[in-house]
């Protein structure tokens, strides 16, 4: 009895210690006291529960789950369902957590909160939305703001991944988390400018909220802002501002945030910007997508996009085996997805195995008819690259859901025209027109009611008629033009085409149809001739003149000088232009092509150095002989010489006249050189 009393007293003291440590948040010390209690009574339910809670608070989720599974007889699902489900959730055993929650006999508020988180991780957004709505409706506590934040996150996920137009929940965007989630929802709708404004508001609200927070570290601030800035960069990337986006992405990476999910997304986005360029940078960035825990931070579509880009990067870096391995893995995970098989086909094409690539695409198209259209378009592109245009046309015409589309019709007609297969081109037009005729009629109470032809239908008929006229199929074109004219008898353009076509086949029919043309009076255009002639683009302007009678009228009719013609404005004259001197007729030719060009005299100055005594000039004696200058007859000056001659036959062109001060300048230079010389004989 005394031993039992002593044990009870010790247990009471230990429980007091556990209570005190729990209130102080010292769960490590509380765990030691709980273990001592369990040594006294190993099946104490309360002590086991406290031990699980202490382990969870210390982050030891695996050990806590082990304690629960070890004592299943004592810790039943009704007693510890929430703790077990929470440990499974934190250990990323999401399916197990869902089963634990659903197996609980009583759904407490804590289990409902955890249920919403589990549904979000499983990407069951509709069920998750209903769960949070129920929680907000039936709960009133200090966690209401967090529930609204989670609700807005679900709406943003629906808009982004399921392309669901989000409903207005009427949430007041009082926190930066709500602003951020609202921006994500707008991005999913393609409203990028509005989303950018929301992100800027989220940043402002966050910075303003820091004023009231004292225990926030700089790392926490950078981490939160990095998420906002990353989303801003993504918007820039979608808007085509790739340089700005790349700069912001790299700034975030330099901060080294602890969120591996954020780093993986940013690295993936940088890889998509680089594409087949800067592959070495992409190979560095791809390592960030392989960090531990990334698969638990991102959605399935995000992880799938990262794997697709890894396969493409392997292809661009000529890692053929790695590319095939990744694309095959992706195809096994998503057999109906197009990208894995397209990547495999692209890799085969890089290896010059086009036939094998086409066979692979054909096999996929046969297995997945719902996605056959896009695959066949790729097959046709490969056939065109090989020069097999006719086979490409056959593949395109096998896509039934696209046969009547104007783009497909235009492509087929162009390709058949290139191959000079006019009959097949006309057949394409005919099939498309027939498709619209069959789908134009609708049944109304057993009666067939025909509606007016659609604009696309009429456009196809017109294009077919023009094509047939161009290639000499006049009778077939007439049939199409008559169909168009019946639809719109007031269409003068179609009537004119029809008359023109009949004039080549049946002139009498053309005359009959020409009676339907409107008269010239009804077709006259109200044009102000004077205003047209006086407009800026008119070639001439008629002079305004008074009333002319008699001789003046005859003069007006016979004198062409009364019409003032616009002429070009005179060009600028050279500065040394002399109106008395006849310009050089060869002034427009390059100097080397003129008749008087003799080439440059090379080494003239070198030849003159050292000739004569010191102080003598290099001028020739003949130039200093005044008697010779007076008696000798004047000679024609060379082009470019400085002599002035009054005879018109030897006039120097204005562009070749040297400035008057040029010789003087030369003499001055010689004088300076002479004056500065040192030494002597």
Automatic annotation (TrEMBL):
PROSITE patterns in UniProt: TPR
GO cellular component, one term: endoplasmic reticulum
Source taxonomy: Eukaryota, Metazoa, Chordata, Craniata, Vertebrata
Cited Pfam families: SRP72 (PF08492), SRP_TPR_like (PF17004)
Keywords: Coiled coil, Cytoplasm, Endoplasmic reticulum, Repeat, Ribonucleoprotein, Signal recognition particle, TPR repeat
Protein name, as recorded: Signal recognition particle subunit SRP72
Renumbered residue ranges of the record's region Disordered: 543-681
GO MF terms, alphabetically ordered: 7S RNA binding; ribosome binding
Compositionally biased intervals (Basic residues): 665-681
Skewed-composition ranges (Low complexity): 610-644
Gene Ontology biological process terms from the UniProt entry: SRP-dependent cotranslational protein targeting to membrane
Coiled-coil segments: 94-149
Compositionally biased spans, kind Basic and acidic residues: 575-596
Family annotation (InterPro entries): Signal_recog_part_SRP72_RNA-bd (IPR013699), SRP72 (IPR026270), SRP72_TPR-like (IPR031545), TPR-like_helical_dom_sf (IPR011990), TPR_rpt (IPR019734)
Compartmental location: Cytoplasm; Endoplasmic reticulum
Organism this protein belongs to: Elachura formosa
Domain of life: Eukaryota
Statement: the UniProt record of this protein carries the keyword Endoplasmic reticulum: yes
Signal recognition particle SRP72 subunit RNA-binding domain residues: 545-599
Keyword Endoplasmic reticulum: yes
TPR repeats: 226-259
Family classification: Belongs to the SRP72 family.
TM region(s), chain numbering: none
């Amino acid at each position: 009895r005394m031993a039992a009393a002593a044990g009870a007293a010790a247990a009471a003291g230990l429980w007091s210690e556990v209570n005190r440590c729990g209130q102080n948040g010292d769960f490590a010390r509380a765990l030691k006291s709980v273990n001592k209690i369990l040594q006294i009574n190993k099946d104490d339910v309360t002590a086991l529960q406290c031990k699980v809670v202490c382990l969870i608070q210390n982050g030891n989720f695996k050990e806590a789950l082990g304690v629960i599974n070890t004592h299943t007889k004592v810790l039943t699902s009704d007693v510890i369902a929430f703790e077990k489900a929470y440990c499974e959730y934190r250990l990323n055993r999401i399916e197990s957590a869902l089963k634990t929650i659903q197996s609980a006999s009583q759904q407490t508020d804590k289990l409902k909160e955890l249920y919403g988180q589990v549904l979000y991780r499983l990407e069951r957004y509709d069920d998750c939305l209903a769960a949070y709505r129920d929680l907000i409706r039936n709960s009133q506590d200090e966690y209401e703001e967090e529930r609204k934040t989670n609700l807005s996150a679900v709406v943003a996920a629906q808009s982004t991944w399921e392309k669901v137009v989000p409903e207005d929940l009427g949430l007041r965007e009082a926190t930066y988390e709500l602003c951020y989630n609202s921006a994500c929802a707008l991005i999913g709708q393609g409203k990028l400018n509005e989303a950018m404004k929301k992100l800027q508001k989220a940043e402002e609200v966050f910075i303003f909220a820091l004023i009231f927070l004292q225990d926030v570290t700089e790392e926490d601030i950078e981490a939160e802002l990095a998420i906002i800035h990353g989303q801003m960069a993504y918007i820039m990337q979608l808007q085509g501002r790739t340089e700005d986006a790349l700069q912001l992405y790299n700034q975030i990476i330099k901060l080294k945030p602890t969120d591996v999910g954020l780093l993986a997304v940013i690295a993936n986005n940088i890889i998509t910007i680089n594409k087949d360029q800067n592959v070495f940078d992409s190979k560095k960035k791809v390592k960030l997508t392989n960090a531990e825990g990334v698969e638990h931070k991102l959605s399935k579509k995000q992880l799938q996009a990262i794997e697709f880009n890894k396969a493409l990067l392997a292809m661009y870096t000529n890692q053929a085996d790695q590319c095939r391995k990744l694309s095959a893995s992706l195809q096994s995970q998503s057999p109906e997805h197009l990208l894995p098989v397209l990547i495999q086909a692209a890799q085969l094409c890089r290896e010059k195995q086009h036939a094998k690539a086409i066979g692979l695409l054909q096999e996929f198209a046969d297995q997945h008819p719902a996605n056959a259209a896009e695959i066949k378009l790729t097959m046709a592109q490969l056939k065109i690259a090989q020069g097999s245009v006719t086979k490409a046309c056959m593949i395109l015409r096998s896509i039934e859901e696209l046969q009547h589309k104007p783009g497909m019709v235009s492509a087929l007609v162009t390709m058949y025209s290139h191959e000079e297969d006019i009959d097949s081109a006309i057949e394409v037009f005919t099939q498309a027109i027939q498709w619209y005729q069959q789908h134009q009629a609708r049944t109304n109470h057993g009666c067939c009611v025909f509606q007016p032809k659609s604009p696309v239908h009429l456009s196809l008929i017109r294009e077919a008629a023009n094509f047939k006229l161009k290639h000499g199929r006049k009778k077939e074109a007439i049939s199409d033009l008559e169909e168009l004219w019946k639809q719109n008898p007031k269409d003068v353009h179609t009537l004119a085409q029809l008359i023109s076509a009949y004039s080549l086949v049946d002139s009498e029919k053309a005359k009959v149809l020409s009676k339907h043309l409107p008269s010239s009076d009804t077709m006259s255009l109200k044009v102000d001739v004077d205003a047209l002639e006086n407009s800026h683009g008119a070639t001439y302007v008629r002079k305004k003149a008074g009333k002319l009678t008699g001789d003046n009228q005859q003069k007006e009719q016979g004198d062409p000088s009364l019409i003032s013609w616009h002429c070009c404005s005179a060009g600028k004259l050279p500065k040394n232009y002399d109106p008395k001197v006849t310009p050089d007729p060869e002034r427009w030719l390059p100097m080397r092509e003129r008749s008087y060009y003799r080439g440059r005299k090379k080494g003239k100055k070198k030849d003159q150095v050292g000739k004569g005594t010191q102080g003598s000039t290099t001028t020739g004696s003949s130039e200093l002989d005044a008697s010779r200058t007076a008696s000798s007859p004047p000679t024609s000056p060379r082009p470019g010489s400085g002599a002035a001659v009054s005879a018109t036959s030897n006039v120097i062109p204005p562009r070749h006249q040297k400035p008057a001060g040029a010789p003087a300048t030369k003499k001055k230079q010689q004088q300076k050189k002479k004056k500065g010389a040192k030494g002597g004989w």
